[in-house]
Structure formats: C-alpha cells, structure tokens
Known about the structure:
The complex is a heterodimer of chains A (333) and B (203).
Chain A: H1 4-8, H2 11-17, H3 26-31, H4 53-81, H5 84-97, H6 99-108, H7 112-127, H8 149-155, E1 163-166, E2 170-173, H9 174-185, H10 195-206, H11 208-217, H12 221-237, H13 244-255, H14 258-267, H15 274-282, H16 289-332
Antiparallel strand pairs in A: 1-2
Chain B: H1 2-25, H2 30-46, H3 48-67, H4 70-77, H5 87-108, E1 116-124, E2 130-137, E3 144-153, E4 156-164, E5 167-168, H6 169-184, H7 186-202
Antiparallel strand pairs in B: 1-2, 2-3, 3-4, 4-5
Amino acid sequence: MYTLSYQAKSQASFYWALFFSGALSITGCASTESAAVNSQASAPIVSPTDPYEGFNRSMYGFNMGLDRYLLKPVADSYKFITPDFMQTGVTNFFNNLKGINVVLNDLLQGKFEQSASDLGRFTTNSTIGLLGLFDVATPLGLSQNVEDFGQTLAVWGVDQGPYLVLPVLGPTTARDGGGIIFDKAANPGTYVPGTGIVEGINERANAEGALNFINEAALDPYVFTRESFLQYRNNLINDGKTDIDSFDLDIDEAMDNDGQVAGASKKKVKTDSDSLEVKGKLTLENPEALNAENATVEAFDSMSKSFDDALMEFEQASEKMDRMSKKRRYRRR
Amino acid sequence: MTMLRKIYFSFGFLMVFCLSSLAMAEELTARQVVESFQDQLIDVMKQGKELGFKGRYDKLDAAVKKSHDLPKIARIVVGKQWEELTPEQQAKLEEVFSELSVSAYAHNFKEFSGESFSFVSEEETGRGGVVVHTNLKIPGEKDVRFDYMMKKKDDSWQIINIIADGVSDLALKRSDYTSVLNREGFDKLIAKINEKIESYAKQ
C-alpha cells in the first residue's frame, strides 16, 4: 500500500501508467451511479477539480478497453521479442529527445542552474551516449529532471483547470493539455513519422509494473488514477518541495469539526483536490451555501473563459499557418 | 595493532549496548519508530522468498500494528462519513483495514535486491506532529523519497501517513474509499477491501 513509487520505480513510467490503467470493470461502477444501492450511500458529489466526472469515467473505460485488447498485447509482445538492453536503449533515446524541451522549460521557469545541467546532460548523451541510446550523463551526476510546458504554465500562475481524461492520451488537466501541444512541438521525434508509435509501445511496456500496482491497490481505479495523477503533477510543479504544514492539514481535515475544515480547505486548495470536495459537501448544510455556489459559478466562468482564450489563440495561430503555407505555395509557383 | 583493534571493537560494542538499552528505557523518538520499522521491512524482504506470503504477513503483522496508528488511519480514509457508521460498522472497517494494510506490505515487500532506507531529516509541524524524511535507495534507480507523518499516541510516536515522492497515501486512500462509500455504500466497500486482501494473498 505505501509503496506506490517503490513499485513504479521510474517516474516516467509511473506517469505513463496513469494514462491507461486498471482492469476492473468500469461498467460496474457506472451502473450504480443513478441509484443509491445502499442506505448509507449519499448522492454523488461533484468535485470542482473533476466537474466532468461522468464523461471522464466513460473515457477512462474506453482507454482501459483499448489497453486491454490492443496496447497491452502489443507491449507484451514487444517486451517478449526485444532484449532488455535494447529496451533500455529505446527508453534512453526517447528520454533524450525530450531534453531540448526540458532545457527550454528550465529557462522559462527561471531555473538557470538546472538548465545548464540539463543542457550538459543532453549534449553528453547525444554525443558520447550515441544519440541518446546510452545514458552516460546520470553516472556523471547530471541526473534527469522532468520539466514540461504544463509545469511552466503552473509556475506562471495558470490555474489547473478541470481534470480531463482524453481518448488514447489519458489523464490530463486543461492546463497540461495546452502544454502538451508545445511539448510535442519542441520534441524532434514529433517530426519523424512513426516514432510516436514506437515511443508509445515502449512506454506502455515500461509502465507494466505501475499499472499492475494500480490494479492491485485501487478500490476505485478511476479515482485512484485521478488522485495520483494530480498529486504527481503537483509534486513535479513544486519540484518535490512540500509545505510541512500540509501534512497536518491532510489529517485535521478529516478529523476536525466543520468550521475548522472550511478554514483548512481554503488554505490548501492549491495542493489537495478533495479538500474542496469535503467543503462542497459541508456547505450544503451551511448558511454559506450560497457563497460557495457563487464561487463555483465564478470558477466555471473563468474556466470557460480561459478555454475561449485558448481557442482564440489557436485560431489565430492556424490562420497564421495558413497564410504562411499560402505564401510558400505562391513562391513555389 | 591487533590488540588496539580489539579494544576498539569491544569499546564499540559497549557503546552500542549502552545506547540501545538507554533507548529501551526511554520512549522511542519518532525517528526511531520509523527506522526500526524500516529495518524490519528490509529484514522481511531479505527472507522474503523463504517466508512466503503467510510468513511475511505474520512477521509484519506486529511490526505494522506497532508503528502505525491503523485505527486512526481507517477513520481518516472514510472522512466525514465515519460518524455516520454504526459502532459495528466502524469496528468492521478497522478490522479489514488493518488486514489490508499488513497484506499490502507483505505483498509489495516480497524480495530484496539491495534496497536500503536512509534517514534525511526530521521536522516538527505546526500542530505537534513530526515528519521524518527518509530516502529509499534502489540500486540502479532514482532514489524514492519516503516522508512519514508521525503523531503521538499514548506517549509513543506512530505513523499516520506516508508520502512517497510527494504522493500522499492518506489523501489517495481517502479519495478512493470515500468514492466507493458514496457511490456504492458501506457493504460494497468492505467487500472490495476483502477482494483486495484475497488477491494480495494469492500472488
């Protein structure tokens, strides 16, 4: 139980494991959604971090089916026919391709020292490490850092936005989803057709242990995946630095009386997702209910606004692209 | 030269002996509770194969129950709904939760490949708790941070939460358990926990 990362071992594989996880049937959960089976069961609570839970759950179910019938068999046979050292080589190679993006995001987040180390890592592995097939930098003390645009956006103060499960791509948030587009753009692998498939198969194979762990440990694999994904991302954003008092809050929240809970959850909105859930439930019996509702409405408004903004930017970008390609066509003629 | 070494050795032994008896006389510090638990864990891993699941379970049962405040953890993972449960249900939950916790340990720490824990630092939290930061070293892998949140219970320190690389076990479990409780009710929760215990024991 207390061995999440121990089992997952490699962070990258753990992250990916969250993408497709679980083999427990989701339909079992879905069917009970409408009717409260037990007298103790209360109505499902809508959590502000996961407002689209219904949609997400069905996507999660779809991804699991896809994993079971297509991705896992493919990954298993890949593992079967590929020698271990080659698997490590492939993993190293794709990790190294992300190096440019890591350096870029180090800089965007103002981590200049780390960017120097990561640049050193990238150049070392790309040259002595034969295009990244061998990780020679780690033993030299240049360990791997995980940075991406999703984290940069968080550092810049962009809100996490709603949690989303995308078909095939898996768990993300509105913020991370936007970041992924830039991550792909800054990865040379994106521009070579077919590499994505090899990378995907390899990552799925690496994630086997972590996926099994989720299957073994989770009572509700959907929630387990969501919470570990959000916590894992938060940890990356904060670079592993935790506020010592957040440890206390975790416990107090469940034990203390209502008034204190509200205070506690206000304080830790940024780090913990389900404190909001607790708060949301409490306010149903509280006179504060109206205020909280207003806050939720506002949150939704700002969320949809940020979505709109993002869409606008994409439109502008695509217009620009169109113009550019037109120019090129003219030139060719 | 050899004489000198012998004297050193016996002196060293004496020191260790004195220190350990001192520790026994006084109550254990939070750090000592964590370290002694980790030692027991590594021990079980080393003999993991010979012991088998049952052997590991029996060895870890006392160790886990002594160092973890399992009744309190069981309370926290169902959140507010604890108060809505009948005393019988509360007792049942505590019972199966303890069994699940020990089973999970026995299942996950089944073999040894050079792992070791090392103490990093200790911090006091605002409300009288202590967080013990440790590192799990796995040969050929990146270190995993294990942070133990400790609370005092009847004069002894007990583990109440473990945060592995920033992922809080307690928060994870609370979301997981409350979700099942909300959607499917208490009986289903217990049934699912029992399912997990069974599958841990199988492998």
